[in-house]
Protein 1
Amino acid sequence: MNMSTQATSQAVMHAREHSHWRVYLTIFRQLPVASWLFSGLLVLFMFALVATQVFAAMRLTTVVFGWSWNVLLFVGLGLGKATSDLWGSDSRRLVPDYHRRLMRVVTVTALAIWSTIPLTYWLGSVDRDGMSWVGGVWLWSYGLLGLSFIWGFFVTRKMHWLARVLMMSFALLPWWALVGYAPFREWLFSPLAPAWPGYTPINLLSLLLGPHNWPLFFARRMPAVQEAAHCSSLARIEQRVRTGTALDGFVMRELLQFFHAKSRLRPEFRVCPPALLGWLWGPLAMALFVGVFAKIGILYLAIVAPTLAPSMALLTAITPLSASIGRKSLGRYTLLPGAAHRRELPAWLTRRYFAVCAAVIAFLWLPSLLVAIWAEIPAAVIGRFVAALLLSLAGATALQIFVLPGKTTVLSTPTVFLTVFVGTIAAVNAALIVNDAGARLVFAGVAVSIATSTVLYLWGLRRWKTIDLGG
Amino acid sequence: MTMTQPQLIPPLAAMSDDPVLLEDVTLAYGDIIALNNASLRLPTGSVVGLAGSNGAGKSSLIRCLLGLTLPQSGRIRLLGEDPRELSDAARARLGYVPQTPELIEWMKVDQHLDYIGAFYPDWDAARVADWCAKWDLPPRQKVAGLSLGQKQKLSLLLALGHAPQLLVLDEPVASFDPLMRREFMRTLFDETPDRTVLISSHLLSDLERVISHLVLMKNGRVLLVDEWDALNENLRRVVSPIRLPSGPGVLAQHTGSEDTTAVIDTRQFPLSDLPSGARQVMAMNLDELFVELMS
């Protein structure tokens, strides 16, 4: 380091001591501005809440619980939007300490807001009975997972009306389920057969209409997943071109290589199959949600509900997923092979991605755990809950892996994690299948779901290979 | 008309404290070679014009230099560091204006300046406000409502506000009118005389007025790199009845039906070596040099 660099370094350190809070405050000031862009959506939420309140005829618990959900949903959206806007651009990548500070502020903000949940939970004295909550809250959690995909539609497809309809559906369904026509509501949230606890009409509807299946309905692109798949796939292609070596480990990558090696597609076509492959994980993780949570429905009401959704919201806000769905990136990735590094994550984040996630999730769960202990729920039951929650979060994180943009090393790092994840799934599944006839049925459904997805993937792959989209 | 292949003038010898150093950098996008063993160094305080036809590799070179794109091979040092792992201290000394403004559309101009300025210890808000006024940039206007030229101005202010020691500009004035371009150039080079600047532009007449060094790129290669004054003094266009012998100092030759037009470097090919009958020994401006070497 030469004299000039040393002097500047000292100046930066000195100035940082004084400007530290100014930077954070400046970022913090911008978050609500960015979030405010969701004001239209917030108004709709408010309208839904007021309507709910009227129809609920002073069901205070519903209102309080609903408020916290809506606020969290909004916070998740707002923070995701703000992070996405403030995060990505080449020029800002060169601003000193930019991303680290931004992430700190966003994370702390999200945690601060999330920490109010136990309070609202306590204030609301939420009714923990009634299966109607299971489907509603589960559905909402599931909806949160789809938020980033919806945002992708906002910014890339200019289909605002459709995105809003979907958003409103997710926002209103639980309320409607509570206050709507009672016989139909009960049917909606009741298992189709006593032995099939997870297979309620609402859950099946969710599986059908959920984000992972949207590409089927729109037959084009699911921006967040596909764009990120562009990114990671292009990085892989680029890496392969550079090094001439095979890609590392994981079976799906081998599968990709198998398909790619046999195709002579232009890069923009070659990047599509990974996105399609990503669909596999949706049904897998979500079907597991259905099955496992249905088995522990009451516990889910008590603990998982106020934990899972904010976890999702927070993950949406703090992970690069939000950053990967910026306004301009889809076209860039599609049209500019090799441009994947435009949105390359800072090295510290890619290296510590899973550590960060684990830490955040641990912090998120801790208060819920305390609530559970305070509520004198047996340790064995809590253990079951934690196992199920781990499984669900692992599923969600696996989804995030597929939409994680960045260089090839990003995807090589979590091989261990994926192994653990798959192992956990296998172990839990095996235990459930051995011990419970209902679980056997549930996971038979999972198997069907995976098989369906595989067929869809192969079909989609063939379609992408044969259809000339122009360009 | 035929043309001899222009000869590469080797880059200047590298010094340890050069703010920019690229050695044998190669970058390919699939089959397309964007940079082909490109080498370059920028001496401290130099103002280097980066010129070349579309697709010559200018933006790729800048992106590799800044660590925004990873090359397949080669060595790059930016402010003495690996650009992929640039320290905050180095970032604080660096200013970059991308080809397309990358701004946060929902902020107002002054908010955007304040937001980015907060990250720089040496951000000069008063000076930036002066520039804002001088460049007719409305501080309370939303970025989304700015014209392209105004967005470029804001982009420039974001890169200039911390008085960077190294300024990298990728076609920064394309949307400016001539008056604004002149004003910008004056601002750029009058305020901080020891600043190192790398500026890519197709507006060669503007470049010619301000640069100390010229880098010409073609097909991903650095074709020519030297001090502009030296090039101005020593490069000559000559019209000769016969082809000049290929070798050092003959940068380009176009053979027509009656005579040959060549660009020579008189440091390596003295005028006294010209064949008898050679005429019209002319100095060239940057526009003419560009046309002769790139055509």
Note: Chain A touches chain B through 47 residues (CB under 8 Å).
Protein 2
Amino acid sequence: MKHIIQQVFHSGKFIVGFVILAAVLLIVIVYPLLIKDAPLAIIGQGTFFPPGTYVNAYDSLGSPKYILNLEHAAAKRIASKLSDDDRLAMQEWLVAAGIPENEIDISNTEQLLRQWENHYDPQTNIAGMTNAKRNYYIRLNASLKGLLSTEGAIIAVKNADTGALEETGDVVAQSDYVNIGQVANVRRLPLGTDNFGRDVLTELVAATRVSLQIGFVAGIVATLIGLTLGLLSGYIGGLVDDGIMFITNLFTVIPSFVLLILISFSIGQEKRGAVTVAVVIGFTSWVWTARAVRAQVISLRNRDHVNLSKLSGHSLVYIIFADILPYVASYVVMALILQISSGILAEAGLSILGLGPKTTEVPTLGLMMNWAMIYQAPVLGKWWAYLPVLVTIALITFSMNLMNTGLDQVFNPALRD
Amino acid sequence: MAEERKVCLRGSKLTKVFGLGRQKTVAVDHVDFSFYEGEIVSIVGESGSGKTTLAKMLLGLLNPTEGEVYFQGKKRDIGTHKKKKEYWKNIQAIFQDPFSSYNIFHKIDSVLLDCINMRGGRKFSHTKKVEMMTEACGFVNLKFEELTNKYPFELSGGQMQRLMIARIFLLKPKILLADEPTSMIDACSRATILDMLMQLRKEIGMTIIFITHDIGLAYYVSDSVYIMEHGKFVESGTADEVILHPQEAYTQRLINDVPKIYEEWDLSTV
């Protein structure tokens, strides 16, 4: 046993796959210990907040101020306020006002603003411009005026009785900074929020955990059924073999995914928990394990060591467990790994179709994909709602397939290069 | 000894057919035989003549398609696991390939311990068991201290086959079925193995059914010889009768196929 494990860990592919899977498992286990938020808590009012650090604006007003005189601070501020659409609109107006197009550089904020200041006149009528467009330019001009101001912002509080604004005396100058560590409420959302306003990262970790559980349960159920039937039909043979192979062939000709959809559908939304879905997946995917194990057992049962074991008076159960099972164990472990990874994929496939586990209790990788699809995240370009999920699914299945290939090379030395 | 020879294993019309219809292969075809107690019987034939199939039927590992095996005068009954176990206390085997005879996941000790357990020694103390195993290994010129806690792949082919004999030594069956026990071993170890088998027979007085393709070897060891061709016994009798005065062309051919030193080897086949 020790020898086999040593050998397995000499295979580069197995190590890479194992490290990836171990890292995923570690994150899944450690993350909830550090961050105890409920994975399905709705924290954002609105959909698809982009990834980033969210600093409480109200708290940052009260935080200690530090004056930093940084170069280009004003330019950066203006540049960030002036969207690409606005720049194009400004160019359009300026061109219409008679400025040669090659003199306008919309990426040069300073020059663009100077030209705008010099030439813009709200009274000028440009042929073909709608009223709405004219009002847009007036609004744009007003906001640009505020941009160029170097005055600080005054903080005022509403008087509860009169409703009048009363200055607090605090002025936030343009060179005032707060230290993010001194702001009371800062929330990092490395992957933003999803369509329901839930933290995608926390949700993703919880979903990965549930999906792995589903994969493991499905893989173990499938392997157990396949192994038991394969061992029995291969070793006993005769009528038992015929009977089991009849059932196995029935399951083989019906595409398992169709069967999976039908069973999931007929169970109904109410009863479809994560474990139920896992068992259903396992129940529909044992066929190939059973066939492969049977084939191996048939070639093993006439070996001399099995005959010798019989002659030593061992029982059928003992022979199956001691003389047959260890010889097929390496294959079964490899099949188990593939079953787990295909279980995760099957769950994702079911959930995308809306036949996954009940949606209110647990997230799964498939459900996250489903939600992202329903709320059109791909169309809206909200990549953080689905891309991390895809990468996670890909990483898990990739690592497992890599482990499988590595094991294959260890157990079948002929495949080693 | 020859006067009151008791039949210990008798077969009547023993047949084994594999496959159905067109693909039918008759491996063993209505063979009759009587093996006497204390004898060394050789079954000689070329590859594919049905020797091993016959051996497996005698051992009860394969069910005959037709015919019966009589053990010690009574019809053999191995319907249940218990009866089979009882039968296997009386008949044991050494297989052709020592490398595949062992479960590679178990240590060597377990093979010998199984034998002790089978002979009702399950409750023996550990020291007693070790003593018995040491004795058995000593019989075949192996040192138990060197073998214990080792896996089969750490042994040479000759050592493995000798350990198989040690196993028989512990089991002390009435009949030993040796299915080409020396064919996978080099010539030097072969003599040792045969010698040990002969010694063992002397020690516990068992019947040996020796299956081989080597008629020279059969002549050297056996009392009576059965020649097998295409699943049938074509000739049988004492070793001298069959080999020195062969009646069948097939026997003749088998004898001619044995290479001899100082003589031209006739490689022409019939």
Note: The beta strands of chain A are 52-55, 65-67, 153-158, 165-172, 176-178, 186-189.
Protein 3
Amino acid sequence: MMLFLMAAIPALCGVGCLFHSWKSAGKHGRSLVIYGWLLLLLSLLSWIQLAGAEYGVVFTLLFPAFLAWLMIVFQRRKGRRKTSAPRTVQPMPAPSWQGIGRNIARFLWLFTGLGVAMLLVSVALVMQFPFAANLNLASALLLFPLLWAASVCWFLSSRNPWKVSLLSTVAALVSSLWLLV
Amino acid sequence: MKYSRQLVKSSLSAHSWLGIGMAAVLYLIILSGTLVVFHTHIERWEQPLAAEFHEFDAADVETAFNEYLTTPDNLTPHMYLVFPSDAMPRIKFANEQQGEYRNADGSTGVPAYDDWAHQLSDLHYYLHLPTNIGIILVSAMGVILLALIISGLLAHPSIIKDAFAWRSGSERIHFTDLHNRLSVWGLPFHLMMAFTGAYFGLAGLIILIAAEAFHDGDRQAVTRQFFSGDPVVEAQPLQVNIQQPLQYLNANVPDGQLLFMTIHEADSEQRFQEYYVQQPGRLIYSENYRFDMQGNFLNRAGYSDGDLAKQIVYSIYRLHFGNFAGMGSKLLYFVMGLALTVVCVSGINIWLNRRKHEDLLNRLWVAVVWGAPLAITVSAISGVLARWPSVIPFWGVILAALVFALIVQSAARFRRQMQLAGILAVFVLLAGYAIQFGLAAAFGAGLLLTCGLLLWALVLGIFVIRSSGAGVGKTG
């Protein structure tokens, strides 16, 4: 219990400092932010002392969220939530088959096309890493989802998604040539 | 943080497109994953009549397991003996199809019913699809979650300015602040779930490419770099000695938590036994000790001190499901999982609120959001009380809710009806459970689930009362 308090109290104080720096937004704001992060770092050491390095890091990452959510709930500006004026209930507009087709094609490309492309690129990239072969492959477990997700975001937010698709295809072709030929 | 206006706008558009397209599937995966954190408690609740204990007589259990093993109808390639642990203080004998609980002296106990628990975990792992397709689809949702995180961060230029803000105001502002605050502070958990969730299905694809590229298509050669290969044994008898391995483990791993033993290749003469022992303070699922059938030590898999890659890969399961530090980590994961569920729902609510009107989409979203917990409860009535399959009732309720969404006129009224149906289903389930197993069981082995269900009925009741004011709640 003592060790738990030694971990929880610095975390509470750390999030509290961040909260007060946010709330005051004044001249002490910056120093409070620094103290806040230092206290969270201190709580990491206590969590490690309490639960070991592996569990300790997980608790340090997850625990502050609870404290922050509690502070958000308690400082919530009291005021009656405005209820929206009743809206008109309308029938669904007739579906645009062209729009549905375009969205399905997009989904298929994001799921299969970009997925396969980033799989090839990730495996080709991690094999250039200077670690043991199995650690390189384990790195692909991080890199593949990250590259896939980043390419999905890039595709969807780009003004020219064709360019993104073309670049991904070229990268996949180069990777597959390197890997499989 | 300075973002260009164009970047914010395009990221928000990407975030919306992904969220709207994938929300229903993500919601089912996240909701079921949140419940699956308590998988062992659900299994105990599903069969509360099994004897619970921590101490047992190894000689008696060995004799009983050998009887079970040598019964021809029971034999499958893998045979399991689950030992009592803190999370599951029971002994279970199982093959690949079914299992049965045993008493501390090895005598026959009650059948091990776990259909509903498996239905829930199969929903989370595969969405009830064929496993090889389902696991890839669910893992791809891990990538979609990651893409939502990236686009959400880029679309949120005032992330620091709003770090603790929760404004009162319109329903849309309420949902926007709720969505953003839960997302930003839960970010480490969301990233952890996205990466570890993506692992389960995508690892197979990485292995496939690496095998083609470097091992002439031999996938086993790649897998062996992470998971220890089987030991080579001479012709082994079917009778198994478990006393000697237990003595070995007591002497050599006194702090470890013995989980279960598997007999591999049980239907061939190359059979051997493997003991899974959890290591204190470690995220690896277990360290595995292999013995021949006479109980002679063969080797250790080396997950606890093998190379780093092996340890990382073998840690992902417990990191994803949160079953590493007893009830504390489970509760932590449960609350974080609930928060992620709220993030998913509030994201769509923001979008629905932004529209000037209400239409079928509002009601379909209500059908998904409130239909899923109702479907889970109804599937429990079918699976736990009637011992019928629980997958068909689950999807049946979801389908019925979607059909009702086509008929009803108002989303708010439909939501209240779904919530009332949810309360009714919980009370039917609990009443049936108390009649079938008795109150002692409901508040014994099933205490956590029984209390959880009562709490859920209470929460639904509060929602019903709060939403009874006119004009409130056109969204999920």
Note: Residues 110-180 of chain A form one domain.
